[in-house]
Amino acid sequence: MAEERATAAVLDRLHATVLARKGADPSSSYTAKLYSRGTPKIAQKLGEEAVETVIEAVRGNRDGVVSESADLLYHLMVLWADAGVAPEEVYAKLAAREGTSGIDEKNARPKAG
Ligand SMILES: N=c1c2ncn([C@@H]3O[C@H](COP(=O)(O)OP(=O)(O)OP(=O)(O)O)[C@@H](O)[C@H]3O)c2ncn1[C@@H]1O[C@H](COP(=O)(O)O)[C@@H](O)[C@H]1O
Prior knowledge:
Elements: H1 9-20, H2 30-37, H3 39-59, H4 62-83, H5 87-97, H6 102-107
Helix pairs in contact: 1-4, 3-4
Bound molecules: phosphoribosyl ATP.
Phosphoribosyl ATP (PRT) is lined by residues 14, 17, 21, 29-32, 45, 71, 74.
Family: Belongs to the PRA-PH family.
Main location: cytoplasm
Subcellular location: Cytoplasm
């Protein structure tokens, strides 16, 4: 059987897996252990993985960027599940921004003061 090509659909499957870990035994599931430690710990882990990704990028370590990005996305999926955010909500935000330049969007923001 041909090996399945990894695509962004893996994120939806990962989200479903981490959702299913709610209420699981923290001694047998890392995800359940994270939930049991609470929202601040989940947020802290996401921040740590973001920093580790940044460090690998600055070092020019391409493999490290790939590996730390996977950790980052996993922890982001856990944070979304903990916050009750469905991936579709984030996808809809991104879709609504398609075709709008980030520079135009920033210039259209109300001016402070
Ligand atoms: N993708 C991942 C994934 N990526 C990273 N990790 C874990 O994230 C942890 C990060 O490592 P760290 O050294 O930063 O963490 P740590 O020192 O153990 O933790 P802290 O004490 O700092 O909190 C490791 O335990 C990794 O194994 C993941 N754990 C789980 N998944 C996915 O989630 C699914 C469910 O996992 P369980 O909930 O463990 O069954 C798995 O089948 C995978 O698909």
